[in-house]
Write a structure and sequence with these properties.
Blueprint (H helix, E strand, L loop, with lengths): L1 E3 L5 H8 L9 E5 L17 H11 L2 E3 L22 E6 L9 E2 L12 E2 L10 E6 L5 H15 L9 H22 L1 E6 L4
Parallel strand pairs: 1-2
Antiparallel strand pairs: 2-4, 3-4, 5-6, 7-8
Helix pairs in contact: 1-2, 3-4
């Protein structure tokens, strides 16, 4: 979830006060406009709004992730205004393989905010699984086709007088074709391509 919360902390207050139902949130990041000594060593104070931010993050099962290179995320061109850390990243609790966010000082182009990134490692894995299959030109294929033809051949359509009887016949047809498949298909093992 990408968040911009203005200096009045409108987005943060809205998310905290509204029951937002977001399942399986892995990351919450960007400009929270909160200075706090907890993540900015050049700042001497604790902001009470930070407590609301942590309550919100906790409601999504997220933890503050400190960057691998702790530098300012917003740079000021105004004399008398200092650089600050107001762009943050919160990651799903317990996912240590994601806990490697970085601040990229050279990628900001004309923005005064530095881009934040997370590296997600993708490992090659082969997953062994099996499925029912019916290879062509084997006796089981011929038996399956014969059974399905007979199912249709002996299907009683004289009882079709209303929607309920039609649904019963269709359900019976599906059941018998499924039984014919399970009787004749073979279990085939295969390894999926790497993911």
């Amino acid at each position: 979830m990408n968040i911009y919360s203005d200096f009045s902390h409108s987005a943060l207050k809205y998310l905290k006060d509204t029951e937002v139902n977001i399942n399986n949130l892995l990351i919450m990041t960007r400009d929270f406009n909160i200075r706090d000594w907890l993540w900015d060593l050049s700042f001497l104070y604790h902001a009470s709004i930070s407590n609301d931010l942590f309550i919100l993050a906790d409601s999504f099962n997220l933890d503050l992730s400190l960057p691998t290179n702790p530098v300012s995320t917003k740079y000021s061109d105004t004399i008398g205004k200092s650089n600050s850390v107001i762009d943050l990243t919160f990651l799903c609790s317990g996912l240590n393989e994601l806990n490697n966010n970085s601040i990229h000082l050279n990628w900001h182009l004309i923005s005064d905010h530095m881009p934040l990134t997370i590296t997600i490692t993708i490992e090659e894995k082969f997953i062994q699984s099996s499925k029912l299959s019916l290879p062509k030109k084997i006796k089981e294929e011929e038996a399956f086709v014969t059974e399905v033809v007979n199912i249709f051949k002996f299907l009683d359509t004289l009882i079709l007088s209303n929607q309920e009887s039609l649904e019963q016949v269709v359900n019976l047809l599906a059941l018998r074709i499924d039984q014919a498949w399970n009787t004749n298909a073979r279990k085939m093992s295969y390894a999926s391509p790497p993911v």
